[in-house]
Amino acid sequence: MNLSCNREFLQKCISSADRVTGKHLSLPILGTVFIATDHKKIIIRATNLEVGVEFQIPATIKTEGSVALPGSLLANILSSITDEQEINISVSGSVGKITTKTKNLTIKGFLPDDFPTIPLVNEGDKFTLPAVKFIQGVKSVVGSAAISDIKPEISSIYIHQVGDFLIFAATDSFRLSEKKIKYQGTALTHGIIIPVKNILEVVRILEQNQEDISFTATKNQFSCAGKSVYITSRVVQGVYPDYEQILPKGHTTEVVMLKQDLLNTLKLSTLFSDKFNKITFTINPQQKKCIIATKNTEIGEIESNLTATLSGEPIELSLNGKHLFDSLGSIEKDSVIIQFNGADKPAVIRGLGDPSFTNLTMPLTQ
Known about the structure:
Layout lengths: L1 E5 H14 L11 E7 L2 E7 L3 E8 L1 E4 L2 E5 H9 L6 E7 L2 E5 L4 E5 L16 E6 H11 L14 E7 L2 E7 L3 E8 L9 E4 H11 L5 E6 L3 E5 L3 E6 L18 E6 H11 L8 E7 L4 E8 L3 E6 L3 E4 L2 E6 H8 L6 E6 L6 E5 L2 E8 L5
Antiparallel strand pairs: 1-5, 1-7, 2-3, 2-6, 3-4, 4-17, 7-8, 8-9, 10-15, 11-12, 11-14, 12-13, 13-26, 15-16, 16-17, 18-22, 18-24, 19-20, 19-23, 20-21, 24-25, 25-26
């Protein structure tokens, strides 16, 4: 193999590919990036057996061929020769040589025969979205997904369709986030459950794209295809919790306030919170009182009176302040609406006049 290409294009693709590589000591081939030629372009692949990615970039091909080179080493080399515009790569057996105007480097790699194939997902449910919309859907809810892999279904993002919307949802049983993205296209026949660690890699790669992305899902695999990138991920074969059953249909108390006021108050209050990040709301619409209080026997306590529009019944309940704080990052409106249904029921927060994002937080009883 012998080729010449733009160093900057190659560096971006190799760096992204390297983050997908698997760090398996027993399978060193998974720590490599597969590089092959195809007429006037280079094919770059990486996989950790959970996520696979393929990039294509233009190049001048002198001799066709392929090789598997250590991803981390190659990424570091390319990021360290920023003064070079064009580089030449040649391969003899499993040894790669990088040549620039001022440098000659030799890298020991692997023969490409043992590199795992990346699944090509052609059949299944298909939908197309701008990359930015998919990223928005994932980022809006990912903070509510469970961290532990004990229950794979809830350490995932659930994507399904309801009417003219694609719904992104995540829950760890203590909080729930749902984001609706407007969608008009082929109907999905089933929901898709994608592990959080996988979908975050997908998002990171797609952040470099401004184009429409074609998505395909089967019971085993999920793929994303753009003009120069192709990504696959394993999906969870299970049943996602029927979370819609716990979404309140009404409320007994409602609070409307500026998002920034709530952010500032929560940021200050959590400095005094305990290990459960407990904050207590005391709301009395008749007395026009909205108080957020936090107490920690080892640090101190704080009580904040917020300016808000209140309606409904008086209520006092405790919530996880960090969960509430995190949800505000997904609300685009300047004002938020918080609805309560009693001290033993979850609180619901949305942007005022924006039903596209909903966050539900369970009360703390400790």
